[in-house]
Design goal:
single chain, alpha+beta, Beta-Lactamase, five-stranded antiparallel β-sheet
């Protein structure tokens, strides 16, 4: 699978909508999507209350470290991580083997509700990912066609014979 993502505005808006829906349905404070390199893709909720750049980067590092732990004990990966705090909790899940979905919630929600809502949202985000990949392949195929493909040798001869 190609490691780079091409995020078009249409798909970005769909992802933002999905994250907002997840935040409301799970009664979460913050929901955001990060790539495995630690770059935030989109967020919803009280994102102004945290350093999202650091949170995205640390989340990706956490997932990478946990992948290392999984391999040490013979697991392929741990697709879900959960951190419980005194007042806030973090639910982290892998989406489409390339993105990280982060849900931060407090006592207004429950782990069961978050897990249930994340399962549906993950499937929806995977569909958007699939659409992004299809569109990137389509656009890439169009870009590989040379702009000079329709020029024939006769056209070139005619141009220089004048």
């Amino acid at each position: 699978m190609n490691t780079s993502l091409v995020l078009y505005e249409e798909e970005y808006e769909r992802i933002k909508h999905l994250l907002n829906t997840l935040r409301m349905d799970a009664s979460a404070k913050i929901v955001f999507l990060v790539d495995k390199n630690g770059q935030q893709i989109a967020g919803a909720g009280e994102v102004d209350s945290v350093d999202t750049t650091s949170l995205a980067s640390l989340t990706a590092g956490n997932v990478a470290a946990t992948d290392g732990l999984a391999k040490l004990i013979g697991e392929k990966e741990f697709s879900i991580l959960f951190h419980e705090g005194r007042k806030d909790n973090i639910h982290i899940s892998i989406v489409g083997k390339r993105l990280i979905l982060v849900v931060i919630f407090d006592e207004r929600s429950s782990l069961g509700l978050v897990r249930l809502r994340v399962r549906k949202a993950s499937a929806d985000v995977e569909r958007v990912l699939h659409d992004m990949e299809s569109k990137a392949l389509e656009v890439g195929a169009q870009e590989t066609v040379s702009p000079f493909a329709e020029i024939t040798d006769d056209d070139i001869d005619a141009l220089f014979s004048e």
